[in-house]
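Lab notebook, bench 4. The sequencing result for the construct came back, and we need a structural model before the next group meeting so we can plan mutations. Quick request posted to the team channel:

Model the 3D structure of this chain.
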Amino acid sequence: MDNYKKEFIEFLVKTGALKFGEFKLKSGRMSPYFISTGMFNSGNTISRLGYFYAEAIKNALGSDFDVVFGPAYKGIPLSLAAVISLSEMGMNKGFAFNRKEAKDYGEKDIVIGADIKDGVKVVLVDDVITSGTSIGLSVDLLKKLANVEIPCVVISVDRQEVGLDGKSAVAEVKEKYGISVKPIATIREIMEYLHNRKVDGKIHIDDEMKKKMHEYLDKYGVK
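Done. Here's the predicted structure in token form:
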């Protein structure tokens, strides 16, 4: 496992963004773990998160892209934090984001930031994918603006589970749009790395918790 993945997993634990217990998801499922991206709420944490996104983008594409696009609203700080970290790594890339609604005054563009034009390679960033719908909206928006290439979507964590329709959101995006989804880490990587490992003096995934996670993934996980 790459070092940045290990650092990211520990970062999730230390910030309290990764929680263990019993959590009712939007789908109605009871999950033994939950990822709360709302915990990245300070300069230090969003800066660090930007570094992990930058590493994941660099690992997926090297420097072969032009713009990082963050869909409103959660993707906006992610795209900004990522390009700042990429700049510190020697890659000066553009960033852009969309408005939820067009304005009828001043700057009326629906997409703000770097110029989206024919031939531009755009990386999408988002926190998680619960369905392919939100990604589809971003793809449609960008394709209407220009003949752009979208090599991948980078997300924080892939829960690696199927939706209520029996397909995973990651598979749906790949199948429908031909775009790969690259997580900083997957839930199985998190489970294996944290199993019986102390972070801040505490074991967060012991044998019992790992068993619960396996049972959940056996029932709802991608096969």
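The chain has a mean pLDDT of 92.
Will bring this to the meeting.
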